[in-house]
Amino acid sequence: MLHQDNEESVKLATCIQEALNRQQGTRAKPKLGKPFYLLNSVKRPAVIVEMGFITNAEDRAMLTDPQQQTAIAQAIVSGIRQYRERAAKQD
Predict the structure, then answer these.
(1) How does strand 31-32 pair with strand 47-48?
(2) Using CA atoms, how far apart are residues 63 and 67, in angstroms rounded to an integer?
(3) What's the CA gap between 26 and 15, in Å, rounded?
(4) Which range marks the domain in which residue 22 is found?
(5) Is the pLDDT of residue 49 over 80?
(6) Using 50, 70 and 90 to split pLDDT, how confident is the model at 90?
(7) Strand partners, 48
(8) Number of domains making up the chain
(9) Helix, strand, or coil here: 5?
(10) Residue 21 has pLDDT above 80, yes or no
(11) Which residues contact 73 (CB under 8 A, 6 or more apart)?
């Protein structure tokens, strides 16, 4: 999970990463994605979700499995919802 160099992007990345960690059984932490054009040019909170590498057989199997794709998408949605709920409480 890569995020922009601002507080809201860090919050968004953290919420999504926490949901993915629960789904994947991992303990990854979001990282600053400073060299990425997308993260440097978008004005809203943005993140890049990297779930694996197609060149890795295990990752490829996970990424091409429709059930795993659905589970990953649901975790990402869960993280976005969590971010929005936290943001609404601060308003």
Answers:
(1) unpaired
(2) 9
(3) 14
(4) 2-90
(5) yes
(6) confident
(7) 2
(8) 1
(9) coil
(10) yes
(11) none
